[in-house]
Amino acid sequence: MASTGAPMSAGAAVEKEEAVASAVIANPHADLAEIMPSLPTAPGFPPYRLRRYGGFWHTDLYLKFIGASHACFKPRPTDVLLASFPKTGTTWLKALAFSALNRAAHPPSVGADHPLHRNSPHDLVRFLELADQDDDGLIYEEIPSPRLLATHVPYSLLPRGITGTKDGSGGRIVYVCRDPKDTFVSFWHYHEKTTATLQRMADVGGASAAMPTFEEAFELFCQGQSVAGPQWRHTLEYWEASRRSPDQGLFLRYEDMLLDPSGSLMKLAAFMACPFSPEEEAAGVVRDIVELCSLGTLKGLEVNRRGSTMLGLKNEAFFRNGTVGDWSNCMTPAMAARLDGIVAEALQGSMLTFGASSKDEV
Fold first, then answer.
1. What is the CATH classification number for the domain harbouring 295?
2. What are its GO cellular component terms (predicted)?
3. Of 40, 95, 228, 353, which residue is 20 to 30 A from 177 by alpha carbon distance?
4. 118 in a domain, yes or no?
5. Overall domain count for the chain
6. CA dist., res. 134 & res. 36, Å (int)
7. What is the distance between the alpha carbons of residues 81 and 77, in angstroms, rounded to a whole number?
């Protein structure tokens, strides 16, 4: 799709977005393909043209997927939606959730016969907004209940069938968050490996652009001009939703999951309505799933060393080191302080903090 003019600053983008906001509010299910030309554009990180919609930045392709999910998706009460900002623990969460939910059919102790030995977690748990869709959205209907899906879509842009209910008919949402500093560094390394592949796809976001320097990418991330950004607003929406409806929203922290993977897995399974029995715990099922889904195990599997998954991306691109505090190896103290300050100001009064929990539990 052709650009409608020169890229603009984030501030100008906000002003232009407000000019079309009334039409969006009047019809929240408007066809995004029709209004996309009127949305403000700006360069972003990754190096794609981004459009601002609903307070967040998206590629053209992603906006089309969001529009399609609004048109086609019909939630079920047993649905579990794994939500996250990109590069915050999505792959690990998918592996854990799939293994816990399907442990009766696929025990973690079966070794090479387990689906995770033959498939990427992204093939086993498909993204809501990236699923192939026909005119009736039947692809979603063909998935047996309980359905396990994933999304990077901000909470406010999810289909209303998910967010507009208070009786549980829209299913449950699990959200994982991560310190923005580590998120950015992971984002950077991931897109060093994948941008060339993604830019070969039509509609990824306009003409190809050179990969920005680390410093340039950092500036764009700080301005919120990243795919699904800004991260802190993305996380805040899900945080607030989980506090409003704790029975329908589980908020996890990547740092907590690393500190206590077994406890986090048990909390996740209980929330998904498939709690571990005392007998399973005694038999080591929790331990076996944690080991099966560990970064070391998944990274070493043949399917993740040589295979490819959604959008033609190589599976190995989704696995690096998964540690906490890796930002200190790439980012100066001044850069870290700046990003921390931006996040703190944006979250002021919300009681949400990033990093390991304890301070903001209800």
1. 3.40.50.300
2. cytoplasm
3. 40
4. yes
5. 1
6. 21
7. 11
Among 152, 189, 191, 234, the active-site one is 152
Q: Is the pTM of this model over 0.90?
A: no
Which of these, 50, 47, 46, lies nearest to 17 by C-alpha position?
A: 50
pLDDT band at 21 (very low <50, low <70, confident <90, very high): very low
Q: For 72-103, how does the pLDDT look when each residue is reduced to its tens digit (9 = 90+)?
A: 888 999 999 999 999 999 999 999 999 999 99
Residue 148 in 3-state DSSP?
strand
Task: Identify whether 350 is part of a domain.
Answer: no
> Under DSSP, is residue 261 helix (H, G, I), strand (E, B) or coil?
helix
User: Can 114 be counted among the known catalytic residues?
Assistant: no
pLDDT by residue (tens digit) across 172-204? 999 999 999 999 998 888 877 766 666 655 444
> Collapsing DSSP states into helix, strand and coil, what is residue 334?
helix
Average pLDDT over residues 223-245: 96
Q: Output the six-digit token pair for 34.
A: 């029709």
Would 60 be classed as within a structural domain?
yes
* Distance, CA of 164 to CA of 78 (rounded, Å): 16
Non-local CB neighbours of 200 within 8 Å, separated by 6+ positions: none
107-111, 152-156, 337-341: lowest mean pLDDT where?
A: 107-111
